Amino acid sequence: MQQVDSEDANFLFMEKVESPTHISLIYLYDQSALDEQQVRFTHIREHIRNRLNSAPVFQQKIRRTPADIDYPYWVNDDTFDLDFHVRHLALPQPGDWRQFCILTSRLHSRPLDMSRPLWELYVIEGLHNVEGMPRNSFALYFKVHHCAMDEFTAQELLQSMHAHTPNPRQHESSAQHIAHLPRRAPQPAEMVVRGLVNNSVRSLRLVLQSASNFRTLSKILTRLSIRMAQNMASGNATREAPSRFARTLSSARVFEGAFYPRAIFDNYLRRVPGASLTHAVLAICGEAMRRYLERHKEYTDSSLQALLEVNVRNAGAHALIGNRIAINQIELHIPVSYPVGRLQAIYTANRELQSIENSELTSFRLRSLYENVPAPLLAWVGSLSNRKNSPNRAVMSSGSLGLAELRGAERPLYLLGARLHGFTSISPLYSGCGLMFSASTYADTVGLTFTSDRLMMPDPEVMRECLDEAVAAVAQLKVGKPARAKRAGKQAAKKRRTTRAPKSATAAIPAGG
Questions:
Q1: Among 277-281, 463-467, 488-492, which stretch is predicted with the lowest mean pLDDT?
Q2: Which domain covers residue 474, as residue numbers?
Q3: pTM here?
Q4: How far is C-alpha 121 from the chain's CA centre?
């Protein structure tokens, strides 16, 4: 048997009906080049069956300990039923993008069955009128619990099912298998004994490591305490995230977005030498959110913050095991209205966004502290995650929106001969941060999608319009010389110093779920 670590267990302890902690991946396929040999549901189902041994998540389930005295265990599911996990759906007529988003929102809103392996895959047909895609296109919707893997590992898992050739025979020869040792289900008494021993060892290690890292730990706890005290004293009036996305979560979600030509973003980046696609996406998502808040007359002059997910998995770590993510808090410089100036400001302040050395929470010592939190304490904190003054909420409320960026293949991919048109992901929502964006790059497209709570965003089509407008504003930029962008950045910085609201004393709290 294998025990879940603290980072993965945290997602289990935070699981609630109103805040499920699974992630979703969406893959869209064009099979117009297959003529009569269309990809059928049975083909995909068999394709998955042949790869059940490629990752332990497929056939193992979670066994929680009595009273959560210890971290849960992964055990084999002796009654595994593939037909329960692989399902077949079709959109009603006319089969357009709006109907697809509604269906996806409903699928993502439903929690996973915790008594079975924590994943579901849906083959969705009937995408007859999705803009930019031919008739008879289909989609894969893959839902997996965050305790099993993060967005980055889920993407690797799903993309391993693809090939770089439309020849279906090449797919079967590319299957990889991993040998798994039998994992028996521990008995309740054994769990309790192990839990008492493990908690004693973890508590001792936590005390020793806290003493050796007292300076860093006290700084984080002080900032977190100040933020929680401010929220309690002022009813969240001092919080930086818009109150619309800081309400209590419900059980319903909304999903929307679009795919845009990569050339638009490449042209945008030429205006600010050194800036990466991550900088550009942050600037565009921040602009879309500003436009949305302005339409609802809820925007103030203060800048918004983004919580950027960073993959901190080492190159030698297994690609399909658990979570290895950290959160970087990024200022979006929204008061800078000129797109190039805003991109320059974000890049100047955060030159290495994806570097794991940027965030205090990604250091080895702090991760070691987190890994030694006793299970009962972690379970208690997780049970409070959706409450108004919980520690998790105080951390997540430091961001106005969240962003996960996934990098896909540069060359076209094929699933049983059907060409992958594009993909995106849906992250869970957290109390205090009720808006999550996803950016995905694949071939010559960039996917920008978002999800929110239906009560917080009853009009996702409006946010989609704001996102389209933000991308259009960037697309209208002419290819200029880098020097222009540099001058624009200096002007934007000068304007920012005069218009920016005073920075909160707690804005630098490292963010982490």
A1: 488-492
A2: 250-410+425-499
A3: 0.84
A4: 18
